[in-house]
Design brief:
Layout (H helix, E strand, L loop, with lengths): L24 H17 L8 E2 L26 E2 L3 E8 L18 H4 L7 E8 L9 E8 L4 H4 L11 H10 L1 E10 L2 E4 L7 E3 L4 E5 L18 E3 L4 E6 L5 E5 L16 H6 L32 E4 L9 E3 L11 E4 L4 E7 L7 E9 L15 E8 L4 E6 L16 H6 L1 H7 L8 E6 L6 E5 L21 E6 L2 E2 L6 E2 L5 E9 L11 E2 L12 E6 L5 E5 L4 H5 L4 E5 L10 E5 L5 E7 L5 E7 L26 E7 L8
Parallel strand pairs: 9-14
Antiparallel strand pairs: 1-26, 2-30, 3-33, 4-5, 5-6, 6-7, 6-8, 9-10, 11-12, 12-13, 13-14, 15-16, 16-17, 17-18, 18-19, 19-25, 20-21, 21-22, 22-25, 23-24, 27-28, 28-29, 29-30, 31-32, 32-33
The structure holds MU-OXO-diiron (FEO) and calcium ion (2 copies).
The site of MU-OXO-diiron (FEO) has 7 residues, from loops.
Length: 642
C-alpha cells in the first residue's frame, strides 16, 4: 500500500532520496587499500582491521574482561556474570506525584500524562547538584519514541480505527520523562516526590526558535506566529550539552500525518521527507494538527532538535531550527578547540546524510544563562566522504553555491526546512541509515553507527557493502591539538579524516563481509548498530536494533563494547541482552563509569497483548511487556566493563 512495506521496521529502508548515489566502486577499492596506512598513521599504533577467518571464545587483547552473554533469544534479559541489572522504571510507573497506579486493563490519557511513557529510547544522566560529577544522585532524562498499540490493548493492531480515548493515551505515551534517581547502597531508585519530575508529551507547548522561526511555512491556523508548537514526536536519541541541557531528536515524524500529501505547495518537500499521507496513528481524526488537509504546514514544525532544561521543570522546550530539519536520529554534542559548540546528527533513512552544526558563539563556561540561545545561531553543514580518507563538511548557507532562489531557496529558513534537498544539491554522501553518533572526549574521534541499508546497490567509499544487511561503524578523526588538561579537537574544521571501525555481521560467514578484530568471539559479533556511548575509559558501547530480523536470525539485540585504540580495537564483546522483541537503546554512563543505564524498547514486539512473546519485566498474567529502563552495576563495585 502506497509502497510502504507491511513491516514498519523496514520503513526507514525505503529511500526517499531521489538524487541517487554517485557510483564510487573504484574509489572504495582505493579507500580500502589506504586503510592500513591510516590505521598505523594518524591513529598511532591502532591495530589495522583484518578479515575474520573464524570466531574464538577468548577476550584476547581487549581491556574489557567481563564474561560474555550468549547469542540466544530469551523471554528475559541477561547481563554478564558479576553484574547486577535491575529495572529502575517501567512504562506506566509514576513520574508525577499524583500519578495513578499502572493498570494494564484501564489505560487513560490523564494517567499516562503523569506516568512514565512508552518505548524508552535515549537516556541522559545529569548529576545533582548541577555542574558536579555526582554519580549517585542525578536526573535521568528519557525519550519515549513511539507506542505499540498491539501490545498496549487487547484486540488492536496498527490501523486507523482507534477510538480517540486510545489515541490520546498514545499521544501522552510519547515524548520525554525527567525523573530524579539516587543510588543507595547497591541499587538505584527513583526519588518520589521530586521537584524535577516532569512529563513532556505530543501536546506539550514548545517554542520554535532560530532562523526558521516565524517563517510563513511554519505558520498554521492554530499558530499564526509560526513560533509556538504543541508537542514533540518520535524522539529517538539525543545529546547532552556542556551547559546542562538535553537535546532530543525528532526522527520518524513523517508517519504521523494523514491526508492528501500530494496537494498544495508543500507536496515536493513532503515527498523528500517520506510524508505520504498514511499515518501510523489515527490522531488526525481528532486533532487537526495531524491532518495534512486541515493543517498542511504542521509537518514543517516537526523533524527538529528540541532543547530541554531538565533542571528547570517550568522551562519551555525549544525546537532549534538552526540545526536543520530532517529525521534526526540524535544530537551528539562536542566542544571545538576554539570553544564553540558542535552538534553531530545523522538523518536515519536509507541514502540520507550526516550533518554537523557549529555555533557562531563560544560556550560561556562561567555563566550558564549565556548559552541559553547558543544553538540558534551557527553553521549547518553536511558530510561528503572522499576516497582518500578525508571528508569535507559542506555548508548549507542560503545564497552560496546552488542554494539560491532559482533552486527554490528564498531564505535560510527554506534551506533549514528543506535541509535534505539542500544537501542533495551539495552532493553530500548518501549513507546506510546514519543512527546515533558518539564523540570520544579522550581522542576527539566521532563514531557514526550506520545500521544497514538493504536497498544499496552501488557502494561508495564510506558505505562499502551493497546491499548492506548488517551495518557498519564509521570513525571520524578531526585534527587534535595538545591541551593543558585534555586534547583540544578541531570539531569545527572543514576537513576531517575518516575510517571504518568495523563492518558488522557474523564473521564466521565470509558472505557477510564482516570485519572486526580477529579475536571476536562467536557471541561478540553484532548486527545493526544503532545506539552508542563512550565510557570514561574511552571505549565504545554499541546498542543494536535488528527490528524484525532479530527473530528471523535468532540473534538477540543488546549492548556490546569494544576498545577503539590499542590492541583490542574493534574487538566487540557482548555484555547485555534484551528480552525477545526488544531493542537496546540509550546507554548512558554515570561520570564515574560505575553505572550504565540502558533502555529496553518494545519488548515483545512482533507479538500482541493477547499472546505476547514475553511479559518482561512483570511476568504477570494480563500485564503486557513493559518498556523499561535498567540500571546495571558491578556487584563487586568498580567500573562497568572491567
Ligand atoms: Fe529511532 Fe533510527 O532509530
Ligand atoms: Ca535509534
Ligand atoms: Ca531503532
Amino acid at each position: 500500500m502506497n509502497g510502504i512495506p507491511d513491516d514498519p521496521e523496514l520503513w526507514d529502508d525505503v529511500p526517499s532520496n531521489p538524487s541517487g548515489a554517485p557510483s564510487f566502486s573504484e574509489i572504495a577499492a582505493l579507500h580500502i587499500s589506504r586503510r592500513a596506512v591510516l590505521a598505523g598513521g594518524i591513529a598511532g599504533g591502532l591495530a589495522a582491521l583484518a578479515p575474520i577467518s573464524g570466531s574464538r571464545a577468548a577476550s584476547g587483547p581487549s581491556t574489557l574482561t567481563f564474561e560474555e552473554v550468549t547469542h540466544t533469544l530469551g523471554t528475559t534479559d541477561a547481563v554478564a556474570p558479576g553484574y547486577d541489572a535491575r529495572v529502575l522504571i517501567r512504562w506506566g510507573d509514576a513520574v508525577a506525584t499524583d500519578a495513578p497506579a499502572f493498570d494494564a486493563a484501564s489505560l487513560t490519557a490523564d494517567g499516562q500524562e503523569k506516568q512514565f511513557g512508552y518505548n524508552n529510547d535515549f537516556l541522559a544522566y545529569l548529576p545533582l547538584p548541577p555542574g558536579t560529577q555526582g554519580s549517585t544522585h542525578g536526573l535521568l532524562c528519557v525519550n519515549h519514541e513511539y507506542t505499540n498499540r498491539e501490545l498496549m490493548w487487547p484486540d488492536t493492531g496498527r490501523g486507523d480505527a482507534l477510538p480517540e480515548a486510545q489515541g490520546r493515551v498514545e499521544m501522552a505515551g510519547h515524548g520525554h520523562s525527567i525523573v530524579e534517581v539516587r543510588r543507595e547502597g547497591e541499587h538505584w531508585a527513583v526519588v518520589r516526590p521530586s521537584k524535577y519530575a516532569r512529563r513532556i508529551t505530543a501536546a506539550t507547548p514548545m517554542r520554535l526558535s532560530g532562523p526558521a522561526a516565524g517563517h510563513t511555512r511554519l505558520k498554521t491556523n492554530a499558530d499564526p506566529t509560526g513560533t509556538r508548537v504543541l508537542g514533540t514526536i518520535n524522539n529517538c536519541a539525543g545529546g547532552m550539552t556542556p551547559w546542562g541541557t538535553v537535546l532530543i531528536a525528532e526522527e520518524n515524524f513523517n508517519y504521523y500525518f494523514a491526508g492528501n500529501a500530494e496537494a498544495g505547495p508543500e507536496a515536493a518537500s513532503r515527498k523528500r521527507y517520506g510524508i505520504k499521507g498514511r499515518a501510523w496513528y489515527a490522531w488526525h481524526r481528532f486533532d487537526d494538527r495531524f491532518s495534512l488537509d486541515r493543517e498542511p504546514r504542521e509537518p514543517n514544525r516537526f523533524g527538529w532538535v528540541v532543547e530541554i532544561d531538565p533542571y528547570d521543570p517550568n522551562a519551555t522546550p525549544v525546537k532549534r531550527t538552526a540545526l536543520g530539519r530532517f529525521k534526526h536520529e540524535g544530537a551528539a554534542v562536542a566542544v571545538s578547540s576554539d570553544g564553540r559548540a558542535v552538534v553531530y546528527s545523522g538523518d536515519d533513512q536509507a541514502f540520507d546524510y550526516v550533518y554537523r552544526f557549529v555555533s557562531a558563539r563560544k560556550i560561556d563556561i562561567v555563566n550558564r544563562e549565556n548559552n541559553r540561545d547558543l544553538l540558534d545561531d551557527g553553521e549547518l553543514s553536511v558530510a561528503r566522504f572522499d576516497a582518500d580518507g578525508t571528508m569535507a563538511w559542506l555548508p548549507l548557507i542560503h545564497g552560496q553555491g546552488p542554494l539560491t532562489e532559482e533552486n527554490g531557496f528564498a531564505s535560510q529558513a527554506d534551506v533549514l526546512i528543506d535541509a535534505r534537498r539542500a544537501a542533495d544539491l551539495l552532493q553530500a554522501t548518501p549513507m546506510d541509515r546514519p543512527e546515533q553518533i558518539a564523540v570520544s572526549p579522550r581522542t576527539g574521534r566521532v563514531y557514526i553507527n550506520l545500521t544497514n541499508n538493504s536497498a544499496r546497490d552501488e557502494v561508495n567509499a564510506a558505505n562499502p557493502r551493497a546491499p548492506n544487511r548488517y551495518g557498519h561503524i564509521v570513525e571520524l578523526s578531526p585534527a587534535v591539538y595538545p591541551g593543558r588538561t585534555n586534547v583540544r579537537v578541531g570539531h569545527h574544521e572543514p576537513v576531517f579524516k575518516w575510517d571504518i571501525l568495523l563492518q558488522a555481521g557474523d564473521p564466521a560467514d565470509p558472505d557477510t563481509g564482516a570485519k572486526y578484530h580477529p579475536d571476536v568471539s562467536a557471541n561478540g559479533w553484532l548486527n545493526a548498530p544503532d545506539g552508542c556511548a563512550i565510557d570514561p575509559e574511552g571505549r565504545l558501547w554499541i546498542a543494536t536494533d535488528q527490528g524484525s530480523r532479530q527473530i528471523k536470525r535468532g540473534v538477540p539485540d543488546g549492548l556490546y563494547a569494544c576498545d577503539v585504540v590499542g590492541k583490542g580495537r574493534a574487538l566487540t564483546r557482548f555484555f547485555y541482552r534484551t528480552p525477545i522483541g526488544g531493542e537496546l537503546c540509550g546507554p548512558a554512563f554515570t561520570p564515574d563509569g560505575q553505572t550504565v543505564f540502558v533502555a529496553i524498547q518494545h519488548p515483545g514486539e512482533r507479538s500482541d497483548f493477547n499472546a505476547p512473546s514475553t511479559r518482561w519485566p512483570d511476568f504477570q498474567d494480563g500485564v503486557p511487556p513493559r518498556p523499561s529502563v535498567v540500571a546495571i552495576t558491578r556487584k563487586a563495585g568498580g567500573r562497568i566493563g572491567q
